[in-house]
């Protein structure tokens, strides 16, 4: 796993011991995504539409995640926008510019190179920017481990 960050973008990669079709399925099937991400999404990922659900990670169950799918290019590219680290009850984050999360898949010798990029932090309000960036930086590191475990072949 590798990680590169700058002030506006988190960029991380991981080599997964799974075929691209399997990785694509766990990223884009809302039930599979829910299982590794720690959320209970209520509807499928459809380009141009939002899906939402309660976070299931202990300590964050009060948070409702909403993601608006931007693009689905089968087995190669999936993107959505969302409001990063939007955890304060009663705060309306809808006026903020969301960040863009992009998943890119490349086949490498029967395995998959997964690249995750989240960009747009510089457009967040100054009082939220640094914490949202830091929390999501840590979050994507953890989520890549979750994906790796989720796609691993059963032994």
Number of strands: 8
Question: In the residues, how many domains can be counted?
Answer: 1
Q: How would you sum up the major sheet?
A: 8 strands, antiparallel
The ordered H/E elements are EEHHEEEEEEH
| CATH architecture assignment name | 2-Layer Sandwich
User: What would you report as the Rg, rounded to the nearest angstrom?
Assistant: 15 Å
Overall outline: globular
Low-confidence stretches: none
Widest β-sheet, arrangement of strands: 1-2-8-7-6-5-4-3
> What would you call the structural class?
alpha+beta
Oligomer: single chain
Through-space gap between termini: 22 Å
What is the CATH domain class?
A: Alpha Beta
Query: What is the number of helical segments per DSSP (H or I, 4+ residues)?
Result: 3
Beta-strand share of residues: 35-45%
- Give the mean pLDDT: 93
Output the CATH homologous superfamily: START domain
Helix content bin: 25-40%
What would the CATH topology be?
Answer: Alpha-D-Glucose-1,6-Bisphosphate, Chain A, domain 4
């Amino acid at each position: 796993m590798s990680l590169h960050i700058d002030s506006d973008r988190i960029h991380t990669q991981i080599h997964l011991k799974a075929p691209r079709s399997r990785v694509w399925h766990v990223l884009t099937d809302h039930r599979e995504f829910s299982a590794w991400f720690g959320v209970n999404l209520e509807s499928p990922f459809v380009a141009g539409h939002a899906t939402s659900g309660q976070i299931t990670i202990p300590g964050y169950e009060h948070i409702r995640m909403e993601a608006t799918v931007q693009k689905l290019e089968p087995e190669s590219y999936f993107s959505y926008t969302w409001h990063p680290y939007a955890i304060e009850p009663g705060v309306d984050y809808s006026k903020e510019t969301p960040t863009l999360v992009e998943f890119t898949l490349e086949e490498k010798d029967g395995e998959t190179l997964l690249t995750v990029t989240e960009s747009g932090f510089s457009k967040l309000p100054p009082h939220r920017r640094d914490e949202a960036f830091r929390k999501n930086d840590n979050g994507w590191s953890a989520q890549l481990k979750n994906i790796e475990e989720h796609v691993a072949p059963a032994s």
